[in-house]
Amino acid sequence: MATNERRTREKARRRQEILQAAREVFFEKGFHQATVDDVAAQAEVSKGTIYLYFESKESILAHLLLEGLTLLLAQLNEAYAADQRLTAEERLWRLARTYLDFSQAHPNYFRLMMAFDRGRFREQISAELYEQILQQSIRALDLVTQTVRQGVQAGEFACDDPKMSAGALWATLNGVLVLMANPLRRQMLSVELEPMFEATMALVLRGLRRAAH
Question: Model pTM?
Fold first, then answer.
């Protein structure tokens, strides 16, 4: 029994070492430039050992995505529930600000979240792992949807589909964050991230308020 427990602990330790190595490699090189060979070299194990613990490079990415999504969701939940007296507009600002702060405090996780949309990610990981990522993502979007619905019920906003509006807000903020991460585009616009974020949120909320009148 002691031997089995020791082997289980050793496998768990080795798996975490590989994930740590992958964090360092993916964060430095980016997911698409990094290779499994790079991860193996960083972890000081053979490439074959990597595949004993993870099916593919995409599977490693999936586990790191879950780390980032878990962190983000915890922060969004805290922002959503911080003060039940908030109006829907105030709560949307709080959620959006939390997302912005996460992207700046954890830029490497944010870049991985943006990177996994490309390629054959879904086909390269297990259905169970994909479902976990999907459900975590849905929970985060649901907080925004619930906030828009709160605004509709309170007469602050008017929209036929709160989930669609939440998705539009999410897509818009992602667009701003990706756009402003590029120095050339910031120079083209002659504006920094913070004022662009403020202007974007003001525009979205103005549209929701106008619809309510």
Answer: 0.88
CA–CA gap between residue 105 and residue 98 (Å, rounded):
10
Per-residue pLDDT, 117: 65
91: region left, alpha or beta (phi > 0 left; psi from -120 to 50 alpha): alpha
Q: Which residue has the higher pLDDT, 45 or 3?
A: 45
Per the CB < 8 A criterion, the answer to whether 42 and 29 are in contact is: no
**At residue 137, does pLDDT exceed 80?**
yes
pLDDT of residue 52: 94
Q: Would you give the DSSP letter of residue 5?
A: H
Q: For Cα atoms 31, 69, 29, give the angle at the middle one, nearest 5 degrees.
A: 15
Residues in the chain: 213
- Residue 56, Cβ density class (10 Å: 0-12 exposed, 13-18 middle, ≥19 buried): middle
Residue 14: both structure tokens together: 């080795």
Residue ranges of the alpha helices (H) in 82-192? 88-105, 107-115, 127-154, 162-180, 183-189
Whether the per-residue pLDDT at 95 is higher than 60: the answer is: yes
Q: How far is the C-alpha of 209 from the C-alpha of 55, rounded, in Å?
A: 48
